[in-house]
Amino acid sequence: MKLKLVTLVLGAVMAGAPAMAELVFPSLSYRTGPFAAGGTPFADGYADYFTLLNERDGGIGGEMTRVPECETAYNTEKGVECYEATKGDGALIYQPLSTGITYQLIPKVTADGIPMHTMGYGRTSAANGKIFEWVFNYPGNYWDSASIMVKHALDMEGGDLSGKNIVLLYHNSAYGKEPIRTLEELSKKHGYGLTLIPVDSPGQEQKSQWLQIRREKPDYVFFWGWGVMNQVAIQEAGNIRFPMDHFIGVWWSGSEPDVLPAGDAADGYKSTNFTGTGTDYPIFDDIQKYVVDAGKAAGDGSSLGQVQYNRGMYAAMLAAEAALKAQEMYGVTEINAAQMRDGMEALDVTAARMAELGMPGFGPEVHVSCENHGGPGQGLIQQWNATDKKWVAITDYIESDRDVIDALIVEDSAAYAKENNIEERCK
Amino acid sequence: MPEQLVYAMEVFLNGLMAGVLYALVALGFVLIYKASGIFNYAQGVMALFAALTLVGIMEGQVPFAHLINAAFGTDIHHFGWHVPALLAILLTMVVMIGLAWLVNYFVFRHLVSQEPIILFMATIGLAYFLEGVGDIMWGADIKKLDVGLPQGINEAIDEFTFGVFDYGFFIDNLDIVATVIAALLVASLIIFAQYTKQGRAMRAVADDHQAALSVGISLNYIWVMVWSLAGFVALVAGIVWGTKSGVQFSLSLIALKALPVLMLGGFTSIPGAIVGGLIIGVGEKLFEFSIGPLIGGATENWFAYVLALLFLVFRPQGLFGEKIIERV
């Protein structure tokens, strides 16, 4: 009886006590549905990095982290529901992992005062911090990727693309149409011809498009696909014997699940990326020891080193570094979303810092400011080796054509500011 | 011969091949609708489930491994063996027959004589249930499917057409194989329906449930048989489409490609599914080739439905569907 009484009293005391402070990083993941093959390793990498910080370092600045997951199935409505369901839980940052969800959340996070990070996707002109106070898209955006692809083609052609023909094979959606304006501007500058070939979602049948490519024999095919469209396009390119080293995808069309189904036919295919691949970084020793071997991994540990896993890990690292920066700026360990935003805006991830984190050269250096929420706009080119079943980085980080991209960002963000009566900040 | 005409011929041939692939999916719908009046929304998911099961068996994957490991703290994923493609196909067929029995026992047995909309809603539920079970059973990663079907350009056709037109046609070996498979499948289904006892019983049930019951035909048996046949067709479609794109959850969306074929060919005709597929395949490919570039491309998805609607206006029951006669 006594024991029961003590238990009851203890329970009542604990229920009345304030919850232990935690830094909350919600993960709007998609582990189900047609895009799960990419969403699962990303979510695993994101979760595992925070688990590592908790297990090895006791969290960030002494505060434990928590990553509540909400399944969006890559569906915009569900993504918004997830945001609404988790924002009251002390959320410090959102990474919605979908351009559609991003567009819906921009006004919401702005009103709620919670920062959003859309790494390599979302609204490109959010790179302009003068207009988009609460949205960040470092280290690169869609237009950066398009420019990096052109720069790589320039390298392959000895610096001259005049008279060359480039096909853009794209997902017929807002996402797929993102690079068109950039490629058109760059075609004026470099003198290449541009042919646009859309593929309707989901993209399981692309025979017409690839027959057209076979007839027109372009010098390069730039590829903006997603989901099943990626696997089918890479297989069809192999079928028509298109030279795979002239077939270059955006970073969302360049992960292991995109190339593996095509087998040897995918050998030599290229894509942009903004992180390294593989497990040849010291941090993976710690992830293995503190997370996987300890039975605390989000997945079964088999996706470590894959493109999307590493991308999720990199996203988590950037979020953790911003939280650390915010703690330093405000001299507190328990930060709120507004302080997190300030930390993101003052983020300065140098090569030395990445080496210190056990991730030397894992991603480009990231310096964010009030004006620049887009970071360096850098990415590398990776190439698929079908024999070893590995992506191999074949370039260093390439900076996009800032003259062209910055002008486009200013133009697009100014239009958004006008529509929404937003005054420029950072004056 | 003008260059554009030669290209159009290549597009026409590829349209025929694409049509066969659409027809493969449509056949499963036709079989179930013909025998039970159910529009099976789950047919696309059945193709996915069959292909997932086939790859899982071939690769020696432990079904429900994630669940088992979470429940018992184990770390098992594979049995450590690889099953030859033919044996794996047979084992998958056994699974599909088991699924047909379960579907009938737990769902449709209880819905006999219900309104068609109720039966349709039940198949929607079944589709989502199967998608979830497939995910838990085999995982959501994209799987390579290789049962030995050839892929890539057919050299003989390329060389022959190059000799004739000075331009080599691209025809995918996989499409040629799919055409042969579809032809064999249709011939087998027609022979089965016309000349076997079970086939005649199936047709009797299709004509009139009550009358078939009154002469001693078991409705449950026929429905299990029909769902098994639809499972077999789903397996064939899953193999062909899965070889093209890898086995992944988008495979269930191939059902969308079958809908205009069904509208055009009729829901109750096996030859209708084939002819409808060919018309849709050729129509959408030629439209994309000739008009697509003028209006920004990506016309195939919607044009297939426009074509089907046009046919519907003149023949509501589809090209080969049974004529709708309502006596007052």
Taking the alpha carbons of the first and last residues of chain B, their distance comes to: 58 Å
Query: Which chains share the greatest interface?
Result: A-B, 38 and 46 residues
Weakly predicted, low-confidence segments of chain A: 1-19
Class from helix and strand fractions of chain A: alpha/beta
Strand-residue proportion of chain B: under 5%
Shape of chain A from CA axes?
globular
What Rg of chain B is obtained from the alpha carbons, in whole angstroms?
A: 21 Å
Shape of chain B: globular
Compact summary:
In chain A, 43% of the residues lie in helices and 14% in strands. Chain A is built from 15 helices and 16 strands. The N terminus of chain A is likely disordered.
Could you explain how this protein is built, in words?
- The complex is a heterodimer of chains A (427) and B (328).
- By secondary structure, chain A is α/β, with parallel strands linked by helices.
- Chain A has helices spanning 2-16, 36-57, 76-86, 99-112, 142-156, 174-177, 180-190, 207-216, 228-239, 256-259, 283-292, 307-330, 337-345, 351-356, 402-419; strands spanning 22-24, 27-29, 64-66, 69-71, 116-117, 135-136, 165-171, 193-199, 220-224, 247-249, 270-273, 348-349, 366-367, 378-385, 390-393, 398-399.
- In chain A, strands 7, 8, 9, 10, 11, 14, 15 and 16 form an eight-stranded mixed sheet that branches. A two-stranded parallel sheet of chain A has the order 1-3. Chain A has a two-stranded parallel ribbon with strand order 2-4.
- Chain A starts with a helix and ends in an 8-residue tail after the last helix.
- By secondary structure, chain B is an all-alpha fold.
- In chain B, helix 1 (3-36) packs antiparallel against helix 10 and helix 1 runs antiparallel to helix 12 (270-290).
- The radius of gyration of chain B is 21 Å and the shape is globular.
- The termini of chain B are far apart.
- The model of chain B has no long low-confidence stretch (mean pLDDT 91).
